[in-house]
Specification:
Elements: H1 2-10, H2 28-56, H3 61-83, E1 97-99, H4 104-114, H5 116-135, H6 137-140, H7 146-168, H8 180-199, H9 208-222, H10 251-279, H11 286-305, E2 311-313, H12 315-324, H13 329-344, H14 346-353, H15 357-382, H16 386-402, H17 414-420, H18 424-438, H19 441-447
Antiparallel strand pairs: 1-2
Amino acid sequence: MIKRLFEKLRSQPASIENIYRLDGRVPVLQAIPFGLQHILAMFVANIAPVMIVAGVCGLSASDTTRLIQTAMIIAGIGTLIQICPLKFIGSRLPIVMGISFTFVSVFCYVGPLYGYSAVIGAVLVGGIVEGLLGLLAKYWRHIIAPIVSACVVTAIGFSLLSIGANSFAGGTGSSDFGAWQNWLLGGVTLIACLVFHVLVKGHLKQLSVLFGLVVGYVLALFMGKVDFSAFEGISVVSFPHIMPYTPEFNISAIFSVIMIFLVSATETIGDTSAFTAVALKREPTDKEISGSLCCDGLISSLSSIFGCLPITSFSQNVGLITMTKVVNRFTIGTGAVLMIVAGFIPAVGALFATLPESVLGGCTIMMFGNIVVSGLQMIEKCGFSQRNITIIALSLGVGLGFTQVPEMFDIFPNLVQTIFAENCVAVVFILSIFLNLFLPKEKVEEEA
C-alpha cells in the first residue's frame, strides 16, 4: 500500500506547492511537519475513548497501555487505506482515521453490563454491517441529499465545540478543570496559532497549529504541567496482540452497537462531504462515499480482532484541512506512517501522551469552529428556499436543543437514550432525512 503510493509519486517532480493539491510529490522532510500536525491534532482524542472504556470495563493498566498502542497502529493503517484504497475499501481522500468518541456512551453501558469481550464481539459484527452498507451506498445514498449533508456537517462542528472547550479547561474529569493554569496554557496556545498564521507568509503559514502546540508544550514544561509518568516501565518496542480478548456475541450488545455504527456512518458521510466541498469544491462521488464507509466498517472489525475499539473518520482533522487547505495525500500519509511507528515504539507514544489537554484545546477550538463555518457554507450553497430553511431550522433546532437537555429522554428505554440523548448528530441526521423525504417540495416552494 505504502509502496504503491511512493512508486506512483517517484517519477513526479517534488514541490512544496503540492501540499495544496490532492496528488503530487512533496519533499519528505518538508511533508513530515504537516503530517505530524495531523497526529498532534488527533492524538489525545484517539486514545481518550480507549482510556475511558477500559476504565469502566475494569481493564488493567497494562491492558490499557497495550490498547492505546494498538489504537495508534490501527488508526494509521486506516488512514493509509483511505489514502491508498485496497480495491473498494478506502476513498482515495486524505481522511484521517481514529478511535471514535461516538461509541463511548454505548460502550460505557454495554461494557459493565456484559463485559469487554461482548464489546469486542459487537464491534466485529457492527463493523461488518457498516462495511456492507458501504458497498451498497449507491443504492441508498440518494436519501442523503446535499441539504442533509450540510445539516450533519454543521451539527458535527457544533458537537465538537464542547469537546474543544473541555480540553481547553483541562479535560473532562481532571482535578484542575477550569483552573487559571489551564486558561493560561490554552490561551497562549490559541494566541500563538493566530499570531503565527497572521505574521508568517507562504506555505509555512499552514503550520500554525503545530507551532501553537510546540509553544504551549514548552510553556507547560516550565509550569510543571507535563506528566511524564507514561514513560515508567515502557519497553523499547512492543507489538499488538491478536485476539487478546475472545469475542462474545451478545444479541443486545450487538444491536445497541450496530445502531451507533449507523450514526457513525452518517458522521463519516458528513466528514467526506465536508472535505470534498471545502477542499475540492465539489460533492463526493458514490465511489468516495462507498470507500469511506467500507474503510470505516471493515477497519473497525480489524481493530476488534486486536482487542480495540471502532475506527472512524476524525472531524477535527477535517477541520484542520479546512483551515490549512493542505490536502495532499502523500503529505498526510506521512502522518499516518508516523502514527504507526509511534504505535510500535512505546516511548514515542508516551511522548505524545504527555501533551496537556489544555494545550490541545487551544488549537482545536478554532479548528472545530472551521467545521461549523464549512457546514454553513454548504447550507448557503444549497440555497435558502423556504423548504430548506424549514429543514435546517427544525433539524438543528431539535438536534442541538434537545440534546442540551438529555434528561428529557429519561422516559425512553436505555437504548434510545444511549443513541439520541446526547448525540445531536444522530438526531439532526434522522430528522433532516425525514423532513427532506416528506416535506412536499412544490407546495413549500410555492408558499415561499
